[in-house]
Fold these 3 entries.
Entry 1:
Amino acid sequence: IRVCKTTYKQWYQRRVRGMRFCGPKSSTCLFLLSVWGTIMLLLLGVFFQTESVILYSDIGYDPNRWQSAANSCYIAGGIYLVIGVISFWQKIVNDRYQALEPETTTIMF
Amino acid sequence: SSGINAEYGMTARFTSCIPQSTSMSKLLRSEEMNLVQIFLSQEASYNCIRELGELGAVQFSDLNEGVNAFSRNYVSEIRRTEEMERRLRFFAAEIEKEKLPVPADYNVPAAPNQKDLIDLEATLEQLEGETRQINANQEALLRNFYELKELKHVLKSASAFFQEGKTIQKEDLAAKRAASRFDEEAGKVSRHLSFLCGVINRSKIPVFERVLWRASRGKALLRYLDIDEVLKDPATEEEIPKSTFIVYFQGEQLKMRVKKICEGLGATTYPCKEDWEERRHTEEEVDKRLGELTNILNETKNHRFRMLTTVVSSINSWIIQVRKVKAIYYTMNKFKKTETGLLHAEGWCPKCQLNDVDRALKRGATSAGSATQPILNTVTTKRTPPTYHQTNKLTRGYQAIIDAYGVASYQEINPAIFTIITFPFLFGIMFGDIGHGFIMFVAGLYLCLKENYFLKRLKSYEEIFLMMFHGRYIIMMNGLFAVYAGFLYNDIFAKSVDIFGSAWNADLPESTKVSATGHYGLDPWPPGAQYSGDPYLFGVDPFWNLAENKLTFINSYKMKLAVILGLVQMTFGLVLSLYNYRFKGKTLDVYCTFIPQMIFLQCIIGYLVFMIFFKWFTVDARSDSQPALLIALINMFLNFAGEIPKEQHLYANQRYIQAALVVIAVVCVPWMFGAKPLVEHLYPRVRQASYQQFENEEDEEEEEEEHGTMDMMVHQGIETIEFTLGCISNTASYLRLWALSLAHAELSEVLWDMVMKAGLGLDINKYVNPIGLVIAFAFWACLTVAILIVMEGLSAFLHALRLHWVEFQKKFYLGEGYLFAPFSFTRMLNGEDDEQ
């Protein structure tokens, strides 16, 4: 009977608050990483497309490679946007879980 | 006076400390301190000290220093508080056993008044008594419970034993008949064997068997069965595996022996009937009893749980209250009893808080209902007061890192006030990247914006995070200045940004001949072709990022920048020493130490900086002579007044001006070394006069050791050597500003080239490229944070700090003071009080 109780509670929590597969720390880390990644990769894509001189050492002379690098930057930025949205959702779910557990401390002498 | 939070309490308390004179700002010099004497009546003393503890403005001196801890006035009160602490620890252990969650309550309760203290004591005593009684009851019930369980197992295994026993009986009787020598005995042998059954620890069975065998000479038989159900020891709650056993023997003597052996090995025997019916009956009774006992045990457990739950919600608050009371009595133990029955206390108090202390004492006296008002006297003294800097949440971090090396002497200039800007500035010079600086700034900003949340829960964080949290304003400023330096160096994640339009132009015509190594040199002259003639508006031109000889240019520039900054900071330090001398009225030091030091520094390093600027303004790629500045500086001394070769010529009459500078500098050395001892030897009155001018300064006649002229000369000699050698070595030390920024830039570039470039340059197919880039970026970002921000940040922090501690502070700082440690509850609860 004890085993059944726990799984029921978990199932109920998932229904009410949403399923979570990341803990609070990893969802925050992933969220920050994806914010940084989105902004930086999208900007990099723009710089590749405008063939900015500074990035010469990365790509070289071939003009095709500039465009393909720009494309892969945009797509990678898009992937990070998706990851960012997922991790933000996980952050919200984690906050809901945390709001229901009362905050506890230890006895400090 | 309740619920004062650590940092907020400190800011709130100091609103009365508005500086009276505008020339004395809050942080430039430490606060003026007064030695105060307080006379309290006995009944008001507890409340007054309680008020002073909340205020935290007085550092009490121990007037009973020679007295043993056990013979002080308030020993019995302290014993009572320790008894209360013992009770609280008992509750903490019980709560830990039950694993009850402790609800978080961040209010800090005030110290109780004497009536509430007695109530608290009584409550704790009663609760402890109840809890102990419940525990004792529970133990007894458990013991009974386990005994009944063991009996049940014995009864169950008895049937198995008796089955065996019948066969043994038959065998044994036959053996006995065969072996019996005495007819009487043979006749007296009963048809039954006696037996004894019970329960024993499984670990003791082999010993039991051996002892039985020896004691009975092989005539007793042991059989045992393991008990599956795990039984616990009622006192300690450990699980002990046990077994039921049965011993068959004959005769009364053997029975006694077996019983003694059972007792000795801790085996408990239970009466067991052979008859199956009777056994079943006993088993039913045992089951009924077990059921009743289980109910009673559950009720006892619930009662205990409920009791502990009522304790758990207030236990942290009680602990804080008891600690405050103990601190009050420890402080009161420092006071002396006067003949008139008053308590006499002595301590240091900042002058600006005297009114607050007075009001607090009056409040305490009125709340205690005492007729006599407490008396507060200021006393003049020869002792050096403690150093007290008033800080707010921004300046506290900087003051802490300065105090870590040495606490400022009483009322000398506090370097922390300048550190607020110079430290992040030097950090930025060494860190110098827009992207990394921005991330650091955002991290610091987050900690600062959410500081209320963290401040409430300070005790629940580990030490490393706490260190970073206490330095949150430092981190934020460091990040900000690193962004500024990043714009100067034009470096964002190892790339440059072209904001204002680069001055260089690399559009080469088709017919350009590139050298064998594939390099092409851009010529800045004539302006217009490859170099526009208008330099980039702010910072390093972004084009340098692509140049092969970027480091050659940047290194020279950064090294010169480092030397310039070094000279500026060291000169500033020397000027601060001038202010210190004038504040203390040491005019002799102004003429005999400050002036020669300043002249010496400017003649050598000041001249080097002048040459740097002169060369920047006058020498370029077209010039005939491209002088090397360090060679010029060295030859200034080695080739004194000698001919300067044409290529090393910087300006007209250079050899004579340099010769003059060297002569002046060399003259300064004996001036620094001998002038002060000479004057003090010839005119001893000068020394006394210069000390008299300082207001609060004590009369130095008694305290000053006999300064012979030799001592003074040795002292001055050491200072002179330190300063002159330090001029060169400290300036060279500032070159770490260049070294660390170079390391940071190179690491950043290598990381980009090794990781991001691989991701960007992937050319497999259009589906795999973005995935590869995602992974490469993740790696790059993690390594950037771990290596370039955390590791390099710590490194730059450390080096900037060292530059302040050693190179800057050596010019003016004495750092021989001791910190003001007032009696304050918040300090005690934060663990800053190292008395107890």
Entry 2:
Amino acid sequence: MRTETDKAKLYDRQLRLWQESGQAALENACVCVFGSSALAAESLKNLVLPGIGRFVVVDDAAVDEQDVLTNFFVGSKDVGRPRAQCVVENLCELNPAVQGTAIVRSAEDALSAGASGVISSASLVIACGLAEHTVRQISEICWSAHTPLVCASTAGFAARLRTSVPEHAAVESHVGLKSDLRLLSPFPALRDYAEAVDLDSLDETDAGHVPYVIIILKALQRWAASSNSQEDIARRNMPIPYSSKQQIRELILQAAPAPGEENFQEAYSHFIADCTPYEIPGEVSQILDDPACTSVSAQSDKFWILAHALRRYVQSVYSQGELPLSGTIPDMKADTRSYIALQRIYKQKADQDKAEVSRHVHETLQMIGLPTDYVSAGEIDTFCKNAHRLRLLRCTPIHTELDSGPTQPSALSGSGALDHYVLFRASDAFLAKHARYPGAPSSSKAADSVAPGGDAANGNSLNSSLDLDDLVSADTLELSAIANGMLASWGVDSDVSSDIAAEFVRSGHCELHNIASMAGGLVSQEAIKLITHQYVPANNLCIVDGASARILVAKI
Amino acid sequence: MVTAAACKTGVERFLKLKAPHVKDFELVNERGETPQDLLDAAKVLVIGAGGLGCEILKNLTMSGFKDIHVIDMDTIDVSNLNRQFLFRQADVGRPKAEVAAEFIKRRSPNVSIVPHYKRIQDMPEEFYLQFSVVVCGLDSIEARRWINAFLYGLVESHGFEGFKPMVDGGTEGFKGNVRVILPTMGACWECGLDLHGAKTTYPICTIANTPRLPEHCIEWASVLEWPRRFPDTKLDGDDADHISWLVEQASERAAQFNITGITYSLTQGVVKNIIPAIASTNAIIAAACTNEALKLVTLCNPMLSNYLQFSGDDGVYSYTFEYDKREDCLVCGNKESEVSLSASATLEELIDMLKEDKAFQLRAPSLAFGSEMLYYQNPESLEKLTRPNLQRSVKDLFASSSTLTVTDPAVPTSLQVTVIFTD
């Protein structure tokens, strides 16, 4: 049994990214994976190693010799055995704390037995290399259950990933932000502290240890006092005219006791970035104006309840339209005492802001008839600290995309992903029509699942003498025609790239381990972000083009 | 005629099927070799058997490579097990290269995999000459600079026999990058040195006199206090007792200055310069590396030229581009460069400049002016002898526009640096 310190040591390198809270989310999660090829196994490897709670693998495929050569999680002694079972065994061996189960059924079978069970207990679903009609089914089930779904498949050097979830919120997005110092709208405690510093009376050493925040505030004060637009300056948060900015920067340098004094240099170089008027970041404004935020009920997600409270806070007189202070300040050249004192001032204001937000949270909870401890102090603290970098994602459902095409074909061509996207779609159509992938002879095991009516066990020997080069040529023509038809139906003028079409057919939709492993890395990364609600998931399509060593991203 | 039976795996399809749309791909080359022959004959050196190394070894094995060597000087630590999946709890303490090779061999008995529990700097030229391609999954800039410069030198001394393409991968949290380097042909690793951010360093005066952050207190304990209290014992970031002592000392100092936030984790992170690491990022980058290795050896698709950058923390972002060869590259360029500073600056200030400048990123430079020793870091006797020069003004040591010879453990060759006085 692992002790807490054992776990802390084992997971140290990942805890530095998502802390205990992220780890807990992973350990409470159950991931359901359809498919057991290298793509599926590699995706799971990167979830089992960091300690996902449970996983389920659904596949009725049996291990064959091709698998032994491309799938690291089956062995030569496993030929003939259910691949799902072998993969589960070898993955569980990586981390004894993880529970894995194999369901030796095809995806279609498992789903037809009723959606309850397989998907309903999953925190997240991963679908690897499935036929389009199965993907549609899974997408509809996951969408109505609000379960995030990541669909992926590979074709030789190409791979695609598609994330789909109705709504995903990340409070701890870890998005980098510039410092939140409020220099153009200093709160009273900050203003008073700056006022109490008499720069002129300090000797050279002490002057060299004044935090640059104070230096800037002093310079702004001096400029306001001498400027003609006194009224403007007295109003909070007004932009400073460009010419005045230069003047103030010069004043700062002149006030330095000696040229090159580091803290004055910091004030000079940080002035422009730190003295732009405060603005609530666009992503956060959108959240606060969202209908799910403006009207909340007892059924609302905690995120929306907190967002609603934050909205009320921002609209209150207290906040003057600004989000709660995060309370952290960057390091800056200063003596310890001044820096710590300044840090305290910001921290105290942050605490006051947080107390106000708490009040709004409690009022909101009361209003919707939930107990006041429904949202914990810790959750409010995290929300306030991250108020400037909240993120909300809404994806288009995959089943809609499959029926009506991508919502924004121009986004696809803009990102360079259009050719690969349409060729994957065209390959799916080809499979549905011919029960084999383009370039692959019929009854090839290349596809992880065959369209209805296809028979994977049918006479391999029938096609053993087929000239693949001929098949590839013929299929390339047909695949391109299907692709061009799709492009036309989406209102796209151009034809599909013949080189990329040739690559798709050359692959016969066979799995290349490197690409399966790369896509598996991306799938697991997205899964982790979706499960932990930390960092920002991709929204919503990734294409891997191993031939040109590019990863392309688009929102469709 | 290519039949389905001849293409059991995806790799075989890409090696045997016609591909007129791929520029350099030949079903039979001028020496009568097929891409399959090239793959069968390929001998790969994997440098590093850690987070990237384990993935690289798996990928090469699953891609049809049959002849692999792996070199790594480290032993297994429990904190490796969250991503270095060829190792188990029972392997802790054993050499990574050996355990990795054993695992691969058990799973794929037909693959030859030879481990080397060694430092790359300790292997002779003959060792490196046997390989067709080198794939690096290293964890330090210094090691990468070394192998890059070494492989460059190998072409200079052995011509075509010494030409070993190098694929280099690096990761940090959710970010990573891949480079393909063809030594003496185009940009080398050193040409892209400034693609790396410089490491966070804290000024000594802050650490000694005006700490503000918990990190400053930790550096005080590790850089200043430890050598004072234990002058004969090297600080070992992997020794829990050493770290605990540092936590105590740093906490006491922090309390004196009203600084909060010292933890065991932060302390260890600062001392060991721990970089967060997860399996998923390693998987992505390592796979991109081995994908390049496969293409390099078989030419079945164009190779990366020459840099792929990836980050997965905010959505997915990736950028593939070619960075240029630098004329003044310390390895493949004319190795001459220029710095300028005040004539009254001290030699120590010049040395600090060379250490901090992103273009050099030197660790502990030694300087000579012609035959005259200005300051030597090693051996101890020379260091003592030349130490007084550190405080002398540069104008007292040489004239403006003098060219100094600089050597440093970070760079295998010596550099010619011309120093210009600004006043």
Entry 3:
Amino acid sequence: MGKNKNKGSPRNYTLASGVARFSKSAMFHKKAIYKFMKKKAPAKESKKKAVFVEKKIGGAKNGGTRMVRVKKLANDYPTAVKAAKKPFASCQKSHPAKLRSSITPGVVAIVLAGVHKGKHVIVLKQLQSGLLLITGPMTLNGCPLRRINQRFIIATKTKVDVSSVKVPDTLNDAYFARVKAENVKKDGVFADNKKQKYAPSDERKKDQGEVDKQVMAAISKHPEGALMKKYLASVFRLQKGQYPHNMVF
Amino acid sequence: LIHFYKREMPFKKFVEIGRVAMLNQGPDAGKIAAIVNVIDQNRVLIDGPTSGVLRQAYPIKQLHLTPLRVKFAFNAKTKVVRKEMESEKVQESWDSSNWAKRMALKSKRDGLNDFDRFKLRKAKSARNKIVAKALNTKKRQLRKAGKI
């Protein structure tokens, strides 16, 4: 083989028109793919399935048997061809959503939406669904252990060391999932489903206390712990002349 | 040369050889440099060896003249400019000026994070409470004495 003059440059390339210089078959020969192709196994002879089967029928003077299809034909045909459904790439199951680099466990965040908007909360961890687990702590600002999407918080530069905080494994997405109210039919009429007021379960209260105890201990260890507690109890507000795009959080 | 008319001039700072100016924009924004020569109506040759500004042509509109001035010949080498600026202690007088201090304060304020702003608010509030208390007790005393 002679010296390769084209070392470093690609074998195939796109021309100015947007089309590749060499076709698929040309590349097949250039790259000698036939050397790397696996031998195709001879196609197995598939068993021939019967399409019609002879079935006996009752009655007189009708031939006694009929040829019946094994698989019945479809009774209805759609008027429009449905677009083929893409295979659901369950990306969530393989890994949770990518977090902003500013969000790490222990970071103090400002909640932007929801009942707790404006509050400073502590981010504990990211759950399997990609949502963040946050806590007020409850005694400081009334925000409980809660899930929140990273889109609804601003992560500040202030961090608390929560490496010593052990969040129980029972605190997962199933634990926080909303319970659907049952639509019970009573006497043929849907029951008067008044919105059930949310009341935290004993399990929730217990977990809240346990986690918050550890988080408060971590805050106290912070060199500015006392002020940090006041900070977490405070609410974020924009003053006149303050513009979020000009501010450092 | 005694410019006797200079006393009545409304202008105090001139674009002249040796005038120390602050750069307004660009990567060297905020640094000082001395004017070494005038190129044309819009540009000057500046050099700031004590502040790390390389010798270069610079538009006058992007300079902010300072009250400081150094004496050297036009087109003086960077070595000469450095020597004059160091002997006149230009960098120190600039850094200790109110102007430079205000600039440093402003950049510090812009860099505060949310927790810092909270602490600042609390500190200001605490100080204001002390001042208000002292003021009001003084007022009460004077009012009782019939002085106000």
